[in-house]
Amino acid sequence: MAATQVRGQRIPRLDAPAKVTGRAKYTYDVDQTSDPRLKGMLYGAILRSRLPRARIRRIDTSKAEKMPGVRAVMSLVGEGAEVQYAGEALAAVAAETWEQAKDALSAIEVEYEPLPFEVDTDRAYEKGLRSSPRVERRGRGEDGFDEADVVVEATYRTPVQIHTPLETHGSVVVWTGPSQVVVYDSTQVLFSVRDSLARELNLPPENVQVICEYMGGGFGSKLWMQHYTPIAARLSRKAGAPVKLMLSREEDFLATGNNPDAVQTIRIGAKKDGTFVAFSRRSYGTGGVGGGADLPAPVYRFPHLYLEHVDVTTNAGPAAPLRAPKWPQAAFGVDSAIDELAAKLGMDPVELRIKNDPSEIRRKEWQIGAERIGWKEKWRPWGSHKGVLRRGLGCGASAWGGGGGPGSVAEVEIFRDGSVVVRLGTQDIGTGTKTVVGIAAADGLGLTPEFLRSDQFRVYIGDTRLGRSGGSGGSTTAASVYPAVYDAADKALARLKEFVAKKLGVPADRLVSQGGRIFDKQNPTKGLTWGEATRLLPTEAISQRGEWRPGMTGSGVAGCQFAEVEVDTETGIVRVVKVVAVHDCGAVINRLTAESQVIGGVTQGISFALLEGRLMDWQTGLMINADLENYKLAGAFEVPEIDVVLLDMPERGVIGLGEPPIIPTAAAIANAVANALGVRVRELPITPDKVLKALGKVPS
Amino acid sequence: MGKGRKVSGGVTRRSFLKVAGSGAALTEVLTGCRPSAEVAVAEEQPQVATKVSVTLRVNGKSHRLQLEPRVTLLNALRHHLHLTGAKPVCDRGECGACTVLMDGKPIYSCMLLAVDADGHEITTVEGLAQDGRLHPLQAAFVEKDALQCGFCTPGFIMAALGLLRENKNPTLEQVRAALSGNICRCGVYTRIFEAVLEAAKKMQGRA
Question: What ipTM, to 2 d.p.?
Fold first, then answer.
C-alpha cells in the first residue's frame, strides 16, 4: 500500500455530528421536511397472525376500510392459506395517522382454524420434525478417537437470539411517477433491495431508487429485501400517497429473523501431552420455519474430525444471519470443551490452546491477551477458589475471513476551490463505513485528517443513484470499498498532477501529494499547497471513477479474548470484571472506530453469555418475551472494562473486523465462570438460577 | 378444531392504555383484548377522540397543536413538529431512545401523553447545539466515538444531560446509574461513559 497520511489514525466518524444533533435522518425519521416528495405521507401497519399455525378461514377488511383516515387496506393471504408462525403477515393498512393505522388493524376480522404446532426445539426433534443429518468428516472421523489418551464429552446449549436493532425494520415508499418509485429502507444491502423490489414490482431496476443514508443497526437481519418493502410499495400505490411502514418492536421480534439455537454434544480426544487428535460434534437447532442452524468447524488443529448436524423445524419465524452467524455458539461449545479437557489433563488452558492453534497470529495473541489480563499472576486451577464471591479467568478464540472484492464503483471529484466530493452507493450500518470511504479518498489524494473533517470534504453514500456497491455483511465492506475509493482518488490526483507538473516544470511522475501539499519528491520545497494546485484546474471540477484495485486487501483474521468474572455464589449473579480483546484486521484503517467495533462485539458477546434468549411458550406457541423489558440486553451495569488490543499489520492489506469480536466472548465468560466455581454451566445464558443449580444450591 | 375462532387483531397493551386513557368506552376496548371474543367487529371499532388543543413549549419555542388526546409526546414531537431526534424503539419505556428533558429532568417521551406535557418546558436533542456549535456533551460523543449506528445516541445524550444538570461531577458509577435506563445495541457503553465524564470535566472548566 502506498504511503498514506490518514489510515491507521483515530478519526471521529464523519457522520457523528449529524447523529449527536438529531439531524441524521434515518428511515424511521424521513418526512416532508427532509424530502418534500413525502408530503401527505401515510402510516402503514401490518396485521399479523396471533396463532403459531392455522388455516385462515376468512379475512374481512371491509370494516377497516371505512375507518377514519384509512386510505388503503390489503389482504396479504387468501382464504384457505396456512400460516406457519405467530407473527406472519396477514393484512396491511395505510392511514393518515399512526394511531389511525393501529386502529384499523383492530377492525380487521380474521377467522382462524387452529392447526397443530410445535415451537420447542427438543420436542420438535423428538417428533421427527427435522432434516436428515449433514455430515462432515476429516481424517479418520470418529475412528480417530482410538488415538486419544484422554477424552472429554459434554453437551452445550445456546438459545435463539434476536437481532434487536434499535431501529426496527421498515421502509418508506413514494411513487414519483407511474413506474418510478423511491424507497427509504433501513437496510444493509441497498442495491439488492433495489433489484429485488424492481423484480417484485415488474419495473426496470433504474426506476427504483433506494436510499439509506443512516441506519439504526441490522446485525444481519437487514441483509435482503424483507416482506414489508413491497407491502409498503403496494399500499402507497393503492393509496396514491407516500407510505411509511416501520414495524413495531414486537413485529421485529417475531418476523424479521433470529439466530438459531443449538444443542451440541462435543467430544474431544487428546494425547497425554495435550496434543489434540480428534473432535466430534453432533448438533441440532432450529431456524424456525426455515433452516440455517448449522455450526462452523472448530478453529483448532484436529487431525480427525466428525461433524453431524440436523436442522429442526418449528413454528417460529425464519432465521437470519446474526453477526458472525453461529460462530459464537460454536466457539462456546469448542472452547468450553477445551477447558474441560485442560482440567482433566491438569494443564493450563492457555498453553493447551497455543499448543493446538494452527494460526501463527493467534498464537501471538494468546500471549498478549494472557499478559494483559494477568493470567500468570491470577489464574488458579478449577475448584481452588473459595468464599462467597469467587473470581475466575477464561478465554476463547476467534477467526474470520473478512476479505473484500470487486463490485464497487466509486467517484472522486476535485473542485477548483479545493473541495473534494466522494460518492459511493455503499451503506454505513454503524460500522463507520462512511468514514472509511473518506479515509480511502484522503489517502489516495494525500490529504490530512483535518481536511477530511473540514467542510471542504464531503462524502455521499447510501443511495442507489450513486455508484454501485455491495451489501454490508460478512465483514466484507471495508475491504471492498477502500480499494475502489482509493483507486478513484488516485486517478483524480493523477489528473490534478498534470496541471501541477506544467506549472512547476516538473514531470508528473516526480510529484507527490502528502499532508495537503503536492511537491517534487527530489526537491520537496518545490511544490504547491492543495488549494494552489486545485486553482490550476481549467474547469470547475475534475472527476474520476475507480474500481476495486487488487493487492490492497487480504483475508483471514485471528483473535482471542480473555474474561475475568466474579460470581456471587449466594445469589448466582455473574459480574464480568474485565475483558481483554486481542484482534487483528490486517491494516487498521481507522483505529478509533475499529476499537468501537471490538467494544461493541464484546458487549454483544456479554449479552449473549449472560442475558439473551427467546422464550417460547410451548403450550400456546407464542413468544413470551417479545419486548425490550423481558428480552434482556446488556445495559450500563453489565459492561466491564474492555481492553482492546488491535494489531496493525499493513502488509496484510485491509481486512474486515465487524464480526470476529463477538465470537469468543461468551466462551471466555463461560470458562471464567467455570474456573471461578469449579463446576460448569453448559447452557447460555448463564443466569443466576443456572449458577445456583450448578452449585447444587437449588434443585436442577 | 372444526369450529373456527374469530380473533380481532392489533390491539396492544399500549393502544388499550392510550384509548382507555382518552376516555373511549372501556368495554369495547376490553373485548378487543380477548383473543377469542366472538363479538361482531362493528361493535369493537375504537371511537375517534375529539382533538384537543395542546401547547407544547419545545426548545424555547411554543407550538400550538390540535391533537387527539392519546397522542404521545414522542409522536407529537416526531409526527407533528418533525423533531425526529427522539427515537421510537420499544414504544413502552424500556430503552430510553425517546428520552427528552421535561423541566430539566429526563423522561421517556413515549410514556407521556402530549396533553400532559402542556405547559412544561421540553428540551430535545435538537435544542442543544447553539449557533451551530455542538454542546460539550455532543462534542464529547463525537470525539470519543461514543456511538455506532447512532439510533440510541440522542436518548443517551439527553439522559446524560439530565445527570449533569443534577450532578456536575459524577463518578463512573453515577454515570452508569443515570444511563441504566438506556439501551445501546451496538454496545459502545464504555465509550459513552468516557464521553460523559469528559464532558463533565469540560463543562466544569467552562462554568
Answer: 0.97
